Amino acid sequence: MAETQDSKSVVIERPPKVYLDTNHLINVSKMRKGQRLQTSETEENYRHIDEYLKSYCALIFNPVATMDWVGGKATQQSIREIAAVIDSAKLKCTIPESDHLVYTYEVLEQCHKQNPSMRVPDLPPIFQNISDNCAIRSSLAILARDVPDYLEEGQNEKIREQGGLPTEIPVLSAGEWVKGIFNRRQANPEDYDKRISDFKNQLAYDIQNKDVYFCDSERYRRDWLKRLLKIDRILRAFNPGCDIDAILQKTDVEDCPAITLYWTVREKRMRSGVPPTANDVDDYGYIPVIPYADIVLIERQLREFVLQADKSLEAKVFSKVSDALNALESQRFAW
Description:
The chain is α/β, with parallel strands linked by helices. It is built from 17 helices and ten strands. It has helices at 22-33, 43-55, 66-69, 76-87, 99-114, 139-146, 153-161, 174-187, 189-208, 210-215, 217-227, 231-238, 244-250, 257-272, 280-284, 300-309, 321-330, and strands at residues 3-5, 10-12, 17-20, 58-61, 91-94, 128-129, 136-137, 168-169, 295-297, 317-318. The strands form three sheets. It has a six-stranded mixed β-sheet with strand order 6-5-4-3-9-10, sandwiched between helices. Strands 1-2 form a two-stranded antiparallel ribbon. It has a two-stranded antiparallel ribbon with strand order 7-8. Strand 1 and strand 2 form a beta hairpin. Helix 1 (22-33) crosses helix 4 (76-87) and helix 4 packs antiparallel against helix 8 (174-187). It is globular.
């Protein structure tokens, strides 16, 4: 990234990476069709955002967010309209197929930085370009291939039946991707509902037991790295006999921006006592994108928790389109 400093501001000589949550994507779609917006924002503001997306911004496609698109009373028509906004962007990039894989990438980077002789899997970067419709590398498939016990036995059996996971996969349009998600939800609605209930129950448990958590939050965090990210399994597969706990104690996870933001937002939420809602699981799926994007548009409550966690993000995380437009102009992104 080339930057030059003048007397007023920094000119960033690359397309800004922009992320819109589901509600903002819906409003862009409605604006295009001349329908009433689900917000007090003006149609003109959304038209300007739409012009930026079609001209020079790199729109971030988050596969995890598609689970939100197919929720509630979603139809094939409604999800196609949301996906069309993504697919119409001139430039597009995507993050790994699961949000926890961003966290995994960050921890492995820090482990290797701490000890360059330590072997770690060769995962793709957090952002991969999907503007040219070429293949992208799958972090999940690489880990499933190189870490024997990364997947649970039931998952392994299912994957073997399907012929395995390819480490390189063709780029699907957002429309093609979400169609598959929608069909899976229709076929197995209980899986979708369980995903929501599990997240709500865990967050409710954490809120109820926050006093116990904050007595030893570091232990909880180390357990989280093993339980959710399976960092211990990954490191052991590449470095047999290594002392996992010693490695994690020396690894500066504070240099992992997505993980730090996730933990801090969750801890702010725990202290607030605000009970979990069905939308939380999807909102938390946006968090890995935030540190790596240039402009982020999300709903107001999540933005409040994000800014409580990191006030410096105020310059790029917004709930109002007008504020995002002002940021794009004031930061003088060059194109």
